[in-house]
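We were asked to recover a plausible sequence for a given structure. The inputs and outputs are reproduced exactly as logged, with field labels preserved.

PROBLEM: sequence recovery
POSITIONS: 493
GIVEN STRUCTURE:
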């Protein structure tokens, strides 16, 4: 059997979308920037690498493509990344197919959120896997190609290397990523990174160099990169430096990132807008004081919501589309949901769109049961007590007011209240739809979908202030530089 000398990274796909199965959901692309970081690391060492995404394709079709490309079978391991528990069934099928075709293949499986909680449980689900790698693998990726792999859990700060998107099969379809920082450490009860300290942002000039390098990978094509960070928290001084660095290098690129609603100031938002920030994903999660405390989002709900109000207005004032994330949580009642809806109504003109869904317990019983036991004190119960062991995905009856079915209905209703088709397409096409996916393609997919499953109004009306046609930058760096200068003089930064 002829074998290549290529390390193929496969990002496990999904047999069906994780929320609602419709054509629009199947169009979404999620760049596995963690796997790309590993592929880039090996590439810089001179190893031939390729990253393939399973997307919503059949595992057999992906493997057939690897055979056609001549990269499989290989003398080197095949690296399977499982980004979420929703990808586990796809991964199981893929591993069986690999083993059937090449019994001598070495299959190494990573994906820290799936491997880490209970490797023994996962090994039972993936008996074909030769090696399971917990944690972040950049410090030990080279050793995984040897007969003596290093499986220690080592510190893995964000690498300085720029992600090489050309290693991705069909990379032109994907919007690129620039990793900004790792960790969070804010302690939210539902978050995987609640106890992982937030990494300090690098110098603004590093971001400018990274953006310039990524832009060159895509040639003259427009890109809309995502600055990947669990919590992007620059201060005014850093944001001013970013705007200046981008301006000095002639970078005029619109980008997207995510943060909390209570950590960014209006001054910082002004500077980030000057640096090209156009879409900001904000983890509001809830506007109910009761649920804010239950989620451990903040010890001071009033202060949390006041900061959220200020931030949303600042985004609107500076042409940044704020997409608000809402989580229906354990113990949710009609009263707590109404508190969230009332807050969103009050800020509707500053909201570009919302993403709403009920909380889910992820992981095998070893970790899921910790959450399930905590949530039971608020009246929540799993829909199926065996689901944690079967799939690592436990859907939840939130309370007497909201069983799983009514929570899903409430999620759709709340999402449609603040988002129409125009807003939805803008937000998704900015980062998640294929780069060549046009509005006409979207409209055809809407027509072919069950509209009862779509999280937006199909009739377009007046949308939030963040979706106004504001593609141009607002004098990159100038307004915020003047503002920051006055702050420096008065000793605030």
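RECOVERED SEQUENCE:
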């Amino acid at each position: 059997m002829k074998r290549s000398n290529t390390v193929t990274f496969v990002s496990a796909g999904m047999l069906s979308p994780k929320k609602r199965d419709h054509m629009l959901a199947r169009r979404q692309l999620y760049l596995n920037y963690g796997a790309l970081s590993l592929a880039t690391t090996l590439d810089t060492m001179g190893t031939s690498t390729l990253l393939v995404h399973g997307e919503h394709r059949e595992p057999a079709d992906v493997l057939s493509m690897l055979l056609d490309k001549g990269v499989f079978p290989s003398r080197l391991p095949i690296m399977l990344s499982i980004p979420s528990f929703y990808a586990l069934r796809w991964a199981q099928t893929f591993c069986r197919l690999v083993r059937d075709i090449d019994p001598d293949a070495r299959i190494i499986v990573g994906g820290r959120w799936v491997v880490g909680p209970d490797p023994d449980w996962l090994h039972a689900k993936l008996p074909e896997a030769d090696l399971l790698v917990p944690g972040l693998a950049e410090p030990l990726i080279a050793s995984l190609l040897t007969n003596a792999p290093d499986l220690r859990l080592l510190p893995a700060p964000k690498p300085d290397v720029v992600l090489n998107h050309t290693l991705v099969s069909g990379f032109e379809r994907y919007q690129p990523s620039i990793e900004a920082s790792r960790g969070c450490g804010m302690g939210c009860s539902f978050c995987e990174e609640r106890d992982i300290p937030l990494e300090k942002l690098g110098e603004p000039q590093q971001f400018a160099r990274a953006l310039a390098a990524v832009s060159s990978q895509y040639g003259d094509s427009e890109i809309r990169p995502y600055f990947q960070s669990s919590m992007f928290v620059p201060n005014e001084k850093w944001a001013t430096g970013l705007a200046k660095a981008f301006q000095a290098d002639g970078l005029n690129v619109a980008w997207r990132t995510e943060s909390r609603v209570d950590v960014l100031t209006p001054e910082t938002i002004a500077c980030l807008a000057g640096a090209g920030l156009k879409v900001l994903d904000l983890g509001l999660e809830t506007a109910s004081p009761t649920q804010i405390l239950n989620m451990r989002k903040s010890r001071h709900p009033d202060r949390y919501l006041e900061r959220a109000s200020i931030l949303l207005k600042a985004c609107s004032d500076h042409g940044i589309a704020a997409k608000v994330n809402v989580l229906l949580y354990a113990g949710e009642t009609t009263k707590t949901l109404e508190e969230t809806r009332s807050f969103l109504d009050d800020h509707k003109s500053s909201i570009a769109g919302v993403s709403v869904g009920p909380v889910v317990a992820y992981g095998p019983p070893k970790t899921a049961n910790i959450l399930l036991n905590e949530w039971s004190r608020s009246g929540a119960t799993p829909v199926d007590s065996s689901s944690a062991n079967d799939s690592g995905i436990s859907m939840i009856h939130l309370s007497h007011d909201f069983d799983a079915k009514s929570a899903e209905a409430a999620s759709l209703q709340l999402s449609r209240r603040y988002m129409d088709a125009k807003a939805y397409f803008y937000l998704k096409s900015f980062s998640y739809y294929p780069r060549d996916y046009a509005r006409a393609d979207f409209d055809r997919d809407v027509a072919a979908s069950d509209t009862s499953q779509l999280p937006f109004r199909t009739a377009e009306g007046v949308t939030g202030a963040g979706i106004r046609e504001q593609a141009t930058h607002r004098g990159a760096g100038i307004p915020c530089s003047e503002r920051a200068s006055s702050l420096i003089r008065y000793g605030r930064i």
